[in-house]
Queue: 2 jobs
Job 1
Amino acid sequence: MTRVFNFSAGPATLPESVLRQAADEMLDWHGSGMSVMEMSHRGKEYMSIHAEAEADLRELLAIPANYKVVFLQGGAIGQNAFVPMNLYRGKASADYVNTGEWSKRSINEAKKYGTVNVVASSEPSGFTSIPKQDTWKLDPNAAYVHICSNETIGGMQYHWTPDTGDVPLVADMSSEILSKPIDVGRYGLIYCGAQKNIGPAGLTIVMVREDLIGQAMPITPSAFDLKQQSDNDSMLNTPPTYAIYIAGLVFKWLKKQGGLKAIEEHNRVKAALLYDYLDSQTFYSCPIAKDDRSLMNAPFKLKDESLDEAFLKGAKERGMLQLKGHRSVGGMRASIYNAMPKEGVQALVAYMKEFEASHT
Ligand SMILES: *Cc1c(COP(=O)(O)O)cnc(C)c1O
């Protein structure tokens, strides 16, 4: 068996030990005689898996007691609709910051449910930097302020937390969740799809301050009503049980790595290996402002685009996959989530040097 270095932006690489444990437990989970996939979601075995996953997530992120954790389906794209449906709360408008492709998707979806004010945008910089907070035109009466804290496609990440006063801050954290400690208490609601940094696609996690729950628009589907789901401990309908089980194993793996402070340090080392190299030469370049570069998704371009195919082919031959940038931006992108080992980034940088040397 050979495992590749998988630089995919999502679904993405998972810790090998987690996959091994899942394989070991596939046919018979802890003597139950069943796979987790086959268990009733209301049975005591599955209920214990579910409760432990939530408890470990709460511990990792130090989630305050007045926040609910809800396990849903529908992905972050689903949340683009659920957030306005649940959080407009009768208010006239919501504020959105546009930092790239995922922000735009959120903005366009929210417009179906209410008035959206784009209060700041990265557009003037060609989506290469995050607008400084003092340029944001926030509305103190907005229902909430929405940001995408890590733009997976563009490769920009907030390395600071916006201050939105009494207006709840909402963040799409799909591609950075659990990569570093965050102060959950500064957000009204955080959502993420699991398939970047947590586990299999199909699970969506929402963390929400309790006082924001319970004023969903009447049209809100029951399955996506935060009150109905949180009142039922995410079991209003059948939750994505197997995905939650794998997420739970990943949470245990993170605790074993030393928690989020330790994983952040690891992520900083990995990203620095790549960005320091990118800044040290001119064959490749990274367009993103240094202060706003993502530690999770590093976009870069070859000076001579006609070499892109050869670069990707050589990478593949060396067991490094999924380095092609998103079709909307071109070039390359290396996604280096929690589960990407340092060796993967070292191998990539060594290959980049080798490719440069043989093409100049
Ligand atoms: C991947 C991603 C999405 C899309 O999530 P789905 O699970 O496909 O709905 C949305 N936002 C961000 C920031 C992402 O990285």
Note: The pocket of pyridoxal-5'-phosphate is lined by residues 10, 75-77, 102, 148, 152, 172, 174-175, 193, 196 (CB under 6 Å).
Job 2
Amino acid sequence: MKRAAHALEAELSRLEAAQLRRRRITAEGFAEPGSRALLTVRGRTLVDFSSNDYLGLARHPALAGAMRAAADAAGAGSAASHLVTGHGAEHQQLEEELAAFTGRARALLFSSGYMANLAVIGALAGRGERVVLDRLSHASLIDGARLSGADLRRYAHADARAAAHFVDEDPEHTALIGTDGVFSMDGDLAPVAELAQLARRAGAWLVVDDAHGLGVVGAGGGGTLEEQGVESSEVPVLIGTLGKAFGSFGAFVAGEAALIDYLTQKARSYIYTTALPQPVAAASRAALKVAQSEGWRRTHLTALIGRFRRRALGCGVPLAASGTAIQPVMLGSEAAVLAAQRALEAAGFCVVAIRPPTVPPGSARLRVTLTAAHTEAQVDRLTDALGEACTGLAGPGAA
Ligand SMILES: *Cc1c(COP(=O)(O)O)cnc(C)c1O
């Protein structure tokens, strides 16, 4: 026991010395009714430029109202898994509405995107088969592939030719090609049409995890596929989350009826877990309505993205090439991102440093995210503060 505890301390000290130890920020409150944009942290009000609440829905009164009504009607907990007695009317209706929203036959609700990815890869690939993933895929896709026991190959980021190399080595056994739609730490988009062509040629499943695209990317919020003009039939397995642009919690897989039936029978992270609370499903239903009816949220966000990029690049801030709400500032070293995070906090902004292993070594960054809840004035003040914080800090790739 004693030795084990020492080993933990040693590893924690190593993380601390390498500036890789992570610390949580407690949001003590929110300074603006109905909005998450202003956080209270250690008694100070900060503008939050790190959330995934892209449409500004997490504290929307329609979501909280739907949640309250469902809690009054159905209670807090689901009390069982979906296949026993935990599946309720709110879950069922949300699944039908998600299928309609994504233009697919069926959708299956999961408690989180992490669990959805474990489910999908574990159900569609296994020992003796090959899974081909983008190198920068979300950790849950990678963990799903590892847990499946399949032979995992990771291709160079967003490079369909590199993916083809791994598929063509062993097309017989390639079961699945997987990618984020919008990359979570980079904000760029996968080459979905090329990957779809490759998957079709190899007879493999194509899985697109559009956690950061659905609801927010594309004129109608249809995600990466809408943005790129890719038909839903080209992507047989679509994964979405409800805790990001939809401001709620949970996730789903959308596809043909046979796929959804199969996952319902086989996916262990679906079967062996309690159904998420019905009030949460009710909030997601409300979010889906607001996301579709209030197109101004995407229009306003698009304008803020353009404004942020113009101003930040004008101040010499090293932005990555991203057109989405995820705008990484590539500083390279752990020391530089932590210093920049502190400087921004002093200026009234919460922008969290993202370090390895979340991103590859040497590519630490500030992950700035913009949301429909931000104002032009907040974005302008952020870019001024970023310009100052980045002056004198090392550029991309610095040690
Ligand atoms: C956030 C995220 C997930 C995990 O979703 P949760 O519902 O938060 O568990 C999965 N995939 C991608 C690409 C993500 O960004």
Note: Residues 112-114, 117, 138, 140, 180, 184, 209, 211-212, 241, 243, 251 surround pyridoxal-5'-phosphate (CB under 6 Å).
